[in-house]
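hey so i finally got around to running the thing on that chain from the lab meeting. sorry it took forever, my laptop kept dying and i had to restart like 3 times. anyway pasting the input first so we r on the same page abt which one it is
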Amino acid sequence: MATVIGVRFKKIGKIYYFDPRDTLVKPGQHVIVETARGTEFGECVQGTHEVSDDEIVQPLKRLVRIATRSDHEIVESNELHAREAYRICRDKIAEHGLEMNLVTVECTFDLNKILFYFTADGRVDFRELVKDLASIFRTRIELRQIGVRDEAKMLGGLGICGRELCCTSYLDEFQPVSINMAKEQNLSLNPSKISGTCGRLMCCLKYEHEVYSELQKQTPKLDSLVETPEGRGTVVSTQMLRGTCRVLLEDGDDTPQQFACTDCAVLRSGKAKGRPAPGPQQATAPGAPEPVRQPPRRAPRERPDPPADSEAAADMLAEDALPGAEKPHRRRRRGGRRH
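ok and heres what got predicted. didnt touch it at all, straight out
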């Protein structure tokens, strides 16, 4: 076990552990810590506590001090310096004609480094830009290319639900989101409806993915043949969240009946949404040509081994046994066989 404190450097970001050096730090206090890129100003979100050694990334950096009033004034001055650096960098990008979009600028607490975050469609040659910025600010310059999700997290905004973006409000890490999550939830695959402000799939598709995955195991698929309390029928629609499905009974009228999914025993599974139903035979439309059937492949015929007591077999084995022996040249016929 090790005694640590949890520090966060951004409003919504990852939590990093630091060695408090026998100092009692409470949540909500601002601290000055040593990091890989220099001295940094952060907020303690987890006070002095103990964690297992497996949760610590070595080497563990240490706490310098609890932030004072002068430290807060330095942070405010650095923010003004970052705004000025943003304006200068934007002008230099236009001057060099670079295809890049400057997102934000950060300065370390000791102004040992200035970081410029930008987005671009591909790789950008910004070597001349770095030289100009280094000659102006007289410090270390770092340009870091980020993705569109990171850009949305830094800039913030409102989602299509009307609330603040999840990545800006509380998500500290991005979770992978796939199109299959939208299919399992029976959502429209229109990109404008399932994409967020960043242009990628919405992060909220991940929230209910596990619930829908469990409900799919209990819900029969469309066109499935099921046994209901009122007889056999075919599933025509489902409602996973309610746990019900509508079944068209074989012995009933043309009006589908609603049953609970737990009361329906699947006799033959139907086709998944968007996929053809499996089966040994496929029905063809009237008048359509029948599919061409490929003949089955024949297995290669095995040549029988020559009898061991024949003279030809003895000569062949003797030739193969000699490592330096030359095999007799066999004349090949030109053309086809003679009749």
